[in-house]
Structures are given as C-alpha cells and as structure tokens.
Amino acid sequence: MTDDKPREIRKTDAEWRAQLDAEQYAVARQGGTERAFTGKYWDHFEPGSYHCIGCGTPLFAAGSKFDAGCGWPSYAEPINATVVERLVDRSHGMVRIEVRCNRCGSHLGHVFNDGPAPTGERFCINSASIDFKSPD
Ligand code: FE
C-alpha cells in the first residue's frame, strides 16, 4: 500500500511496526483485511466511539454502527466528512472505494452503497484499524 499524500501524522515504517501489533500493522499500514467474524468489534455494540489505531482520531460513533451481518464492524457514516479519505481501489479484480484515516493515512476498510437510509452507505471497517473508547 502506498501513501504519498501529506499527512498531519507521519511515521517511519519502523515506528509503525513498533506501535502496532502484527495484525494491526498488516491491516492499517499494508491495506490488509482481517478475516470476517474474527475481529474485536464486528459484534460489539456499546455506547462510545471508535478511534483510529494509528493516530487516535475519533472516526465512528456507536450510534452509526449497525449489524450488517458481514462479519466486520459496519457504520452508516463517519463522525464527520473530513476524518476519512476515500480512494478508488482497483485491487483483487474489483473496483471499490477504500477508506483511510485522513490524518495518518491508515487503511480502515471500504465503503459500499448498500447501507441503511438516509446515507445509504455502509462503512465496512476492520476491527484491527480501530480502538473503542467508552464515553468519558
Ligand atoms: Fe489515523
């Protein structure tokens, strides 16, 4: 996975490897995907918010989380339009829209157009890329 955009948070590969565990690194920094129904949050429904594993930015609110039955945490929308970046992803013989953290460039997952009203979007996010925080 390449990330040549200017980011507010930039770290060397060694710094990312030191900060993240092996699966977090493979997903967030190499664009991998955790296996369905194996992550921490696909079946997690508590009040709070989900923050970027790379930089701690709040990305998704628990109120937007829904059970899509797909085995990954699914959200109807991000906390706001600027915290995530959308990129066209043509890997694996598909055209998908990849979602990354705008601040640090970490790969989060993909967004699909089969979500609930009113957004109609489903942000399909890897548990390995996010960290849940309870309300203060
Ligand atoms: Fe981030």
Structure description:
With 136 residues, this protein is mainly beta. The chain has one domain: Beta Complex (Metal Binding Protein, Guanine Nucleotide Exchange Factor, Chain A), CATH 2.170.150.20. It has helices at residues 13-19, 22-29; strands at 49-52, 58-61, 65-66, 74-75, 84-89, 96-101, 107-112, 122-125, 130-133. A six-stranded antiparallel beta sheet has the order 3-4-8-7-6-5. Strands 2-1-9 form a three-stranded antiparallel beta sheet, with no helix packed on it. β6 and β7 (107-112) form a beta hairpin. It starts with 12 loop residues before the first helix and ends with a strand. The mean pLDDT is 96. The structure holds fe (iii) ion.
Class inferred from helices and paired strands: mainly beta
Number of strands: 9
The gyration radius over C-alpha positions equals 14 Å
- Under the CATH scheme, which class? Mainly Beta
Strand order of the largest sheet: 3-4-8-7-6-5
Q: Kindly state the mean pLDDT as a whole number?
A: 96
- How many helical stretches? 2
Task: Give the distinct bound molecules.
Answer: fe (iii) ion
The SSE order reads HHEEEEEEEEE
Strand content: 25-35%
